[in-house]
Amino acid sequence: MISGISIYEIFTLTSILFFIGIYGFITRKNLISILISIELLLNASAVNFVIINKYMYPDALQGVYFSIFIIAVAAAETALAVAIIINLYRQISSVEAKDTEIMKY
Amino acid sequence: MNLSYLLLIPLIPLAVFLLLGIFNTQIKPAVSGYIGVLGLATSTALSYYAAFQYFFVSGKVDGVYQTFVEKVVWMNFTETSSLKYLHIDMGILIDPISVMMLIVVSTISLMVHIYSRGYMKGDDGYTKFFAYLSLFSFSMLGLVLATNLFQIYMFWELVGVSSFLLIGFYYTKPSAVAAAKKAFIVTRFADLGFLIGILIIGYYAGTFDFQTLNAVNPEGEALLLNWASTTFMGMSVFTWALILIFMGGAGKSAMFPLHIWLPDAMEGPTPVSALIHAATMVVAGVYLVARLFPMYYFVEEGFVLNIVAYVGAFSSLFAAVIAITQTDIKRVLAFSTMSQIGYMMLALGVSSYKGEEGVGYMASMFHLFTHAMFKALLFLGAGSVIHAVHSNYLKDMGGLRKYMPITNITFLIAALAIAGVPPFAGFWSKDEILVAAFEKNEFLYFIGLFVAGLTAFYMFRLYFGIFWGKETEYTHTPHEAPISMTFPLLFLAFMSIIAGFIPFSEFITADKVGFEGHLNYTMAALAVGTGLFGIILAWIFYKKENDLAEKFAHSFGMFYKWTYNKFYFDEIYIFVTKKIVFNLVAAPIAYFDKKYVDGTMEGIGNKTVWISRKIKGVQSGKLQDYAFSFVGGVVIIALVFIYLWTN
């Protein structure tokens, strides 16, 4: 419970965060920027977990654990994605999304 | 009567066929010849044993030859409990004519096997040839032993296939390939009628079984008449069925107008002509009519038998006239075969059922037996001559009697037999046929008599042309054939002499009772007189080299030319099939098939490819495009759900 702030305001914040992430994911041309956008998506959902836990089930802690879990998974996933991008860079000397179209069809 | 060993008679040749066929390349030619001969010899021995058992030991009960059947149900068409329980059996049927055919087929086949060891020596396809011969023997023996219409039909097709394979044995020769195709297509066309006839009988009588179809009660009335009440176009359906079955028989037996394949079939090796196209397969049609004889006789007072008689008589006359003008010796023999089978059909056609009135039936089977012997002998003799001279044409022969004494003597015996000179085999059977024809229909009798004269004439034209006549200069001196070829000649010559003395009428009759045969001296004298006249005419024309025959032929003018070209029947058939059937029926159907049936299918395929080419750009490979579609989809679904829930 945070005094003076209702759950709706926090949901509004996380929704904005989430759609910023989606916008970034779709419009960014750089693979690293896309990765950062994904992080934004994950963070928005992590905040949602904590807030729902806090406001609706104050006696439980599952939501908090989930958010810690998501942070750990996000870290691993980011490491993996960066590794892939580095390998891709070695192949095509670029981290631009448009240069990965060679794999179509 | 124990029948189980009879199963071996067809199965041994089948085993030989499989052995020689599968190990075609591994087996040495010399060995394969022995295997073939040995297999057939076993079958022949079993056939003779069966015949002895049947005719002299256990076949006759109360003065009537019994029919023994052993069979298993092979295929059910209707429920076992239904009224017309239709099923196909497999089995063996033993009665006088099947036993007689067993002897004919196995004897001739054995002789041809022995002969082929000499004749085919050095041929590339030696082992293959023996495999085919065994296949044919298996099919023919199976055909003879069949218990029902369907079984006989299956073996009928099998002999057709083996005949096709053997006619086209020299498959590098275009003429042989064409002849094989022609034989197969013509007989297949006839067999279509046969099949429809079988189906009609299966539908209306509810059985394919010979015994049920031929059943006759003690008063001499056929039992199947109870079923024959359905009519079609004013005739009983059974009459139609029998006409169609006779069409199948006429195709196989080269009756007019389905005879065109037989002369061309002479492209095959000569032993094949002797076995298949003279003695055994071509008489299958006669055998079929004889097999169903009670049916033919009783359905509508033997209406179909009249057709059989007239077709037989006409074919006989037609073929005999053509045979006079042919110059290829095998073709002369082919037309002679057709003519003699016409004789057999004629005899069946004029026969009655009971006792001595059934003399035509007996005569037909008798003639089948004797004809098989002397015609096989004629063909084998001709083969021996061809082997020595390396030509089929009369103009390349002459004066061969000095070089080939055994062939000369045996050929002379066969020619005398076919000309009907006593005491040779043909005299006795031909005499019976003429007697039977005279009692029923004098017109047919005179045709028969005239054909007897023609037969004697063309046969001695052939004999004098080959063994006497002009002294031809040969590039390499002809020599007598080896013992493997002369032994069958001598054996068959022996049979041609004695076969006539078998009292056939006591063994084989339509009602299976048997009667005392006797010679009608007036008839016999007339027939022999006609035959001798023909021989004397041939003597004058062809014994010494002279131009009498040529002058005589010229006096006939157009008629001679027509006859020489076989009355242009091949050309008529070609015209009908190529110009009419092909252009008016086949070509439009082919066009429709190509344009519309194939077009629709190909159109569907092409359109699919076209559409896929158009829409495959959607898969751009751009990560963000996919993400955008994904998010867009999620948004749309979310909106839909929100809309549904809020209402």
Automatic annotation (TrEMBL), chain A:
GO terms for cellular component: NADH dehydrogenase complex; plasma membrane. It is a multi-pass membrane protein. Its EC number is 7.1.1.-. One of its GO terms (molecular function) is quinone binding. It comes from the Bacteria. InterPro entries: NADH_UbQ_OxRdtase_chain4L/K, NUOK/Mnh_C1-like. It catalyses: a quinone + NADH + 5 H(+)(in) = a quinol + NAD(+) + 4 H(+)(out). The chain crosses the membrane at residues 6-26, 31-52, 64-89. It is found in: Cell membrane; Membrane. One of its GO terms (biological process) is ATP synthesis coupled electron transport. NDH-1 shuttles electrons from NADH, via FMN and iron-sulfur (Fe-S) centers, to quinones in the respiratory chain. The immediate electron acceptor for the enzyme in this species is believed to be a menaquinone. Couples the redox reaction to proton translocation (for every two electrons transferred, four hydrogen ions are translocated across the cytoplasmic membrane), and thus conserves the redox energy in a proton gradient. NDH-1 is composed of 14 different subunits. Subunits NuoA, H, J, K, L, M, N constitute the membrane sector of the complex. This is NADH-quinone oxidoreductase subunit K. It comes from Flavobacterium cellulosilyticum. The lineage of its organism: Bacteria, Pseudomonadati, Bacteroidota, Flavobacteriia, Flavobacteriales. The gene is nuoK.
Automatic annotation (TrEMBL), chain B:
It is found in: Endomembrane system; Membrane. InterPro entries: NADHpl_OxRdtase_5_subgr, ND/Mrp_TM, NU5C-like, Proton_antipo_N. One of its GO terms (molecular function) is NADH dehydrogenase activity. One of its GO terms (biological process) is electron transport coupled proton transport. This is NADH-quinone oxidoreductase subunit L. The keyword Transmembrane applies. The chain crosses the membrane at residues 6-23, 35-56, 92-114, 126-146, 152-171, 183-205, 225-251, 272-297, 303-325, 332-353, 373-394, 406-428, 443-464, 485-504, 524-542, 626-645. It comes from Flavobacterium cellulosilyticum. It is a multi-pass membrane protein. Its main location: membrane. GO terms for cellular component: endomembrane system; membrane. Residues 146-453 form the NADH:quinone oxidoreductase/Mrp antiporter transmembrane domain. Gene3D superfamilies: 1.20.5.2700. Keywords: Membrane, Transmembrane, Transmembrane helix. It comes from the Bacteria. Residues 84-130 form the NADH-Ubiquinone oxidoreductase (complex I) chain 5 N-terminal domain.
